[in-house]
User: Fold these one by one.
Assistant:
Number 1:
Amino acid sequence: MTGSPSGAVTIRVCLTWQDRGHWDARAQRPCRICRQPTNLRDTAGAAAHKRCIEDAIEAKVAEFARRLIAAETTPIHATREVSS
Ligand SMILES: [Zn+2]
């Protein structure tokens, strides 16, 4: 018997926000995640820090990975061959 499945998860997301649309020089607005003021805008135009969104994505991916580890499963799509 080996006990419960366990493992480490390391997720690093780095969004590419080089487009000028991500900077609004006109006004700072509260980030939709941390509520601190920012000139940055997400792709939809909402005020958001890049790092806040990256952290949120990382948290969701890490949670998904932890569930897969706990069940020691892999997504069906990762093991299925795709034919065209
Ligand atoms: Zn923020």
Number 2:
Amino acid sequence: MLDGDGLSNGFTHFLRIGIKTDISSFSLEGDASISDKKEHIVGEIQGGVTVSADSGGIRVGGRVFKEEMIKFTSELIPLKVGGRMFRGEIEVYLKNAKLIVVNKLDIEDYVKGVINKESIPSWPLEAKKTQAVLARTFAVYQKMFNPRSAYFDLAPTVLDQVYDGLGKEDVSSAQAVNETKGEIITLGNNPAKIYFHSTCGGTVSSSAEIWKMDEPHLQQLSCPYCTKSSLYRWTRKLKASEIAKKLGSKSVKSIKTVRGKTRVESVVVDGKKIPVNKFRELVGFSVIWSNDFTVSKSGDTFVFSGKGAGHGVGVCQWGMAGMAKLGKNHYEILKFYLKGIEVRKMY
Ligand SMILES: [Zn+2]
């Protein structure tokens, strides 16, 4: 799919993010031209307007455009949608008498918007560069192989990557993106399917173990670099009655874990087996921080002692910060966690 160090066939470095779907109206602020899908300029806005679905068209302030799609382009200042600022263009589609609002922008601008949501501001630059390459690779992979809808490539939520426009960008994340411009992780001739998690707790697990999905680059390995994470080791104490309430049962008398090769596979509550992720979801992903823990009972309290945070597959983010502090660069970090990959410049 990717041709040497250049672009793949027809791949443009624009992404479409579905920032709002299935809505009746939204506020738009800025000075912009309005064009139709043939790129003909059909109007303009100055200041703020309400854009709404109208019978047979899209209403912009007092005017109705009999179009299925219009596009707002601002040459100078990013447009605001619902009070949030977005680089690039705003496309509005009419579908079933509702609106879909899409932000079309350069991948590099998207990655700038994403990486501070996915990383800790105080991490060293090489860790942010690692995260930038991960975020860019994820976006390119989704666009090529798994777009969210016919109208856009990615959702702006945890379904894909959290993106809320320009508001979260800062100087060092912009630098991390600029210094890795166009770089993505490849496996063979394609962008790699990448995964990352907060803290592995000492062992990164294989995708084969956790998801029954054998990917050559997502293998088990020892990670000695994430010990600075506050969740490297954790303990949570929960009353039996509290757990019962969360599981929707009357009482809980015993909790046992069934372990796979490196992590808990399922939790057995009073003889009933629950997949570990279902258990974590019910009790709370930020109570039972990872799928690597033991349980003991003390009176009417269960004590959960765990390692790390997240699913444990792919890149350990606190580990990548630890490696960066030891002077490793982002290529070394990515190659440590992802076996057999290359980092290549797409453009
Ligand atoms: Zn780790």
